[in-house]
Amino acid sequence: MSDDEFRGLRRAADYQFGGGGGTALFTGADALDVTHTSSGRPRQVHATDGRIATYGDDGRFRLGLAGGSRLLDAFDGPRHRVVVGDESEPFIREGRNAFAKFVQSADSALRPGDEALVVHEDGYLLAVGRAELPGSGMDDFETGMAVKVRQGAED
Q1: Domain 76-150, CATH class in plain words
Q2: Could you report the per-residue pLDDT of 132-142, keeping only the tens digit for each?
Q3: What is the sign, positive or negative, of the torsion defined by CA atoms of 59, 64, 66, 71?
Q4: Under CATH, to which class is 1-70 assigned?
Q5: What is the 3-state secondary structure (H, E, C) of the chain?
Q6: What is the C-alpha to C-alpha distance for residues 46 and 67, in angstroms, rounded to an integer?
Q7: Residues 25, 53: Cα–Cα separation, whole Å
Q8: Is there a smaller number of Cβ atoms within 10 Å at the N or the C end of the chain?
Q9: 67-72-73 Cα angle (round to 5)
Q10: Which residues contact 90 (CB under 8 A, 6 or more apart)?
């Protein structure tokens, strides 16, 4: 991977996840394996610990579990987090969606369509996915999907 491509990925991650997102996700260009589309655009970013992210056609990252874990370690709560309890943990771990009635708290800055880290109340990562409801209201809703889970910790 070229230095320009590495800086571009970090810049895009900083824009999407806020300051420090690029550094958290992409440390050491030599340790990253980037696959490209036929036109040469970055597509998948892998590291030794798994898939970090997929770079979508819209210029946004779709987190893998390894990427979610890196963001969880880099950012203090509640940034990018949706917190659930014991009741829904086994289902979310399997890759099932997180529903609003089980959300205990969420980052109020989350918007529908943002990448979200589904975290147990004890602080460990259960899944990564896409927020379907605004974070400011996730714990207020009684029905509906809060996070469309893309990958659970046991997938």
Answers
A1: mainly beta
A2: 999 998 988 88
A3: positive
A4: alpha beta
A5: CCHHHHHHHHHHHHHHHCCCHHHHHCCCHHHCEEEECCCCCEEEEEECCEEEEEECCCCCEEECHHHHHHHHHHCCCCCCEEEECCCCHHHHHCCCCEEHHHEEEECCCCCCCCEEEEEECCCCEEEEEEECCCCCCCCCCCCCEEEEEEEECCC
A6: 9
A7: 9
A8: C
A9: 100
A10: none
pLDDT at residue 155 above 70? Answer: no
Q: Which of 91, 77, 101, 93 is nearest to 125 (CA)?
A: 93
- What pTM was computed for the model? 0.92
Whether residue 95 contacts residue 155, with contact meaning beta carbons closer than 8 Å, is answered with yes
Contact 112, 133 (CB under 8 A): yes
Q: What is the mean pLDDT of residues 51-66?
A: 94
Q: Please, are residues 144 and 87 in contact by the beta-carbon 8 Å criterion?
A: no
Average pLDDT (94-121) is 96
- C-alpha distances in Å from residue 132, one per residue of 3, 47, 153: 35, 28, 20
**% residues pLDDT > 70 (the chain):** 97
Range of 28-32, 56-60, 144-148 with top mean pLDDT: 144-148
